[in-house]
Request: fold
Amino acid sequence: GGSDDQKRRAAERAADLVSAGETVGLGTGSTAAFAVRALGRKLESGELDGVRGVATSFASRQLARDSEIPLLDLDEVETIDIAIDGADRVDSDGNLIKGGGAAHAREKVVDAAADRFVVVADPSKVAETLDRAVPLEVLPAARTLVSGRVADLGGDPVLRTAERKDGPVVTDNGNLVLDCDFGAVEDPESLADDLSATPGVVEHGLFVGLADEAYVGTEDGVDVRTY
Ligand code: DER
Reply:
């Protein structure tokens, strides 16, 4: 992936968009983490006040608490002013592949609910087309049937195994993850509809038409794309 400086530049520029009193969706992953930390510093310095965060995973909740950002539970939130979140791929239309951190189910709820969804990334994430495996969060009991449907759709489903745990990655919601390589996804909306319609799929990592902007950190600044 890209450098920490590129990630930090993008994330801190996005954090500057947050105004006092706003409710902020706090994304998951190493790039979004820079934005969470930046918000924590702004609150600590008094530059911002009244901000409440909405976490998108166990990890982002923990980081927000370490950064002393007051949190709202997702189920008590009616509006989210801005969400800042990373991505694994961003295409030229602003469609995304997310789910590298297996947090995309709750991320999508938060990112889609936000009045403004800003993606933060480094240049390694940007591509003309979405040419990376699409993560699916699946009900554990349904993974074989879902795998069959994925194959029918032209994908190659691979159960995501954990690194420091025997067996599969288990999500915050107690489900499994299938990484499904469909090659370059030429029609993300159509594939997203097919995956959403597949029983047993809790959520897929195609974020079609959700992002409002992408902030891409470069060596000397931030490349802002608006969709
Ligand atoms: O899980 C996700 O969708 C994350 O946003 C993610 O994969 C990006 O993570 P990174 O910022 O650490 O590359």
User: Anything to note?
Assistant: The first strand starts at residue 23 and ends at 26. The radius of gyration is 17 Å.
